[in-house]
Structures are given as structure tokens and as C-alpha cells.
Amino acid sequence: MRASLPLLLASLFLTGVSRADVVRTVDGSRLTLGQLVDDVPVELAAADVGAAPPPGATRIVTREDLEQRCSEQGISTAKLKFPHAVRVLRASKRLTPGDVSSVAEAAVRQVLPPGVDFVKIETGSEVVLSPRDHVESVEVGRFPHRTGVQRASGVVVFGDGEGRAVRLPVTVVATVADAAARPDVPRNGRVSLVVQRGAMRVAADGAALSDASVGDVVAVRVSATGRVVRARLTSRDEAELMESP
């Protein structure tokens, strides 16, 4: 009698599980021969045998996988005792939204402008990381030119020092004081419109047509001609003319 599909699938699944007769927990983005196979000579222990699963996930590495990786590197397997399969579990840690706010607070405070006081970080979900991951950097957008509690989008970047990075979108909540709420250049504020071509530098008076902060692209009216151009504000006093698209 032909086995039903559910029974067949269950049989295949259980067979796969039974083959993983060794379980290893690792912390790192790559797997080594010494992590997965017992009694490996010291000189072979660091041989790379593939990528580790993401933090919190598992991966099955079969005997065939190990033999192939060894063959590719010219490693003799005659005296190595490979298990049928190894279930690899990547160590992990989970940060709740509250944890993210706590661990990233110091880094966020360092990049906030004067007059902007950190309140908290908001994020919609927890994040799964390697135990070695730490806050490498943060990016915080501009807050509205308004006083009181305001919000800005941002990104917290976690890394493990091996080139792997996890970018977590967040919302940064902060209190904006009166001085910080003022734009660097108010609407109709005077700026020096600069054109730089190699060693040649030409400047002309102009007026910003909207509130702007340093780094913003703003429309500027040239005082002498009335022409409106786009320029990037490079300081409270100067704006650099942008090339036409």
C-alpha cells in the first residue's frame, strides 16, 4: 500500500533529523574544521569549511560537505573521523525595543546637535544579533524646526568586527530647545553664493527662499540678477552653487 504524502514527508523529515548525530554551537560568521570534527590535528583545526548560519538559526553540515571542503583545500581525510552530519547552531542574543534604546543611547547622544536632548529610541520589533555584536555607529536625521518633543528617523548599525553589519531602522525621540529649533539660515536670510572651479572662486550675494540647515539644498535668489538657483548650504554664511541636473 502506497504511503500517504504526510507520512512520507514525516519520514523524510525524521530521517534528516536523525542524521544530525552531532550538535555544535558556534559564534562567528565562518565554520572551521576544528569546530565540527573531533580530534582534528592542530594544524588543520582552523581550516574553513563554510559559512555559519545567521545568529539564532541552524544549519546541517553533512559528511559529504566536509569531505568536499577538505578536498578543495587539499586536506587528506584518511585519518579524520567525520560524523554523518552536524547540526550547527549559531549563538545569538535578542534585544527588545527597550534594550535597543538602552544600548544605543550613548552613541545617539554623541551625534545629537546642541540643544537637542535624547529621550528614547523607538523601534517596532526586537532584533536578533550575534553575542559579539555591538553598536558600531548611528545615523540620525534632522529634527523639525520646532520646540518640544520631536522625532527623527535614524539607523542603529550593529557589527561584530568581521565586516558583518545589521542596520536597524529606528525613530529617535528628543526634546528640541528654542535655539536648536531655529534654522541655520532663515527664509530670506543672506548667504554668499559661491562657485568654485579649480583655483577660481567667485561669490555673489543671495537670499535663501526657505528655512534651511547646513547641508540642505535650498533655492537661492541672486541679488544682482533676481535669478533663482539651487545651492547646497555649506555654512551659515555660504552656499555652493549646484550643477544643473
Quick overview of this protein structure:
The chain contains five helices and 16 strands. With 245 residues, the protein is α+β, with helices and mostly antiparallel strands.
Distance between the first and last residues' Cα: 72 Å
β-strand amount: 35-45%
- Given as residue ranges, the uncertain stretches (5+ residues, pLDDT < 50) are 6-18
Domain unit count: 3
State the oligomer: single chain
Task: Sketch the topology as an H/E string, one letter per element.
Answer: HEEHEEHEEHEEEEEHEEEEE
Task: Assign a percent range to the helix content.
Answer: 10-25%
Number of strands: 16
Largest sheet: 5 strands, mixed, barrel
Major sheet strand order: 12-13-14-15-16
Secondary-structure class: alpha+beta
Number of helices: 5
Give a structural overview.
This protein has five helices and 16 strands. By secondary structure, the chain is α+β, with helices and mostly antiparallel strands. It folds into three domains: 5-91, no CATH class; 94-181; 190-241, SH3 type barrels, CATH 2.30.30. The strands form five sheets. Strands 12-13-14-15-16 form a five-stranded mixed β-barrel. It has a four-stranded antiparallel beta sheet with strand order 7-11-10-9. A three-stranded mixed beta sheet has the order 1-5-4. It is elongated, with a radius of gyration of 29 Å. Residues 6-18 have low confidence and may be disordered.
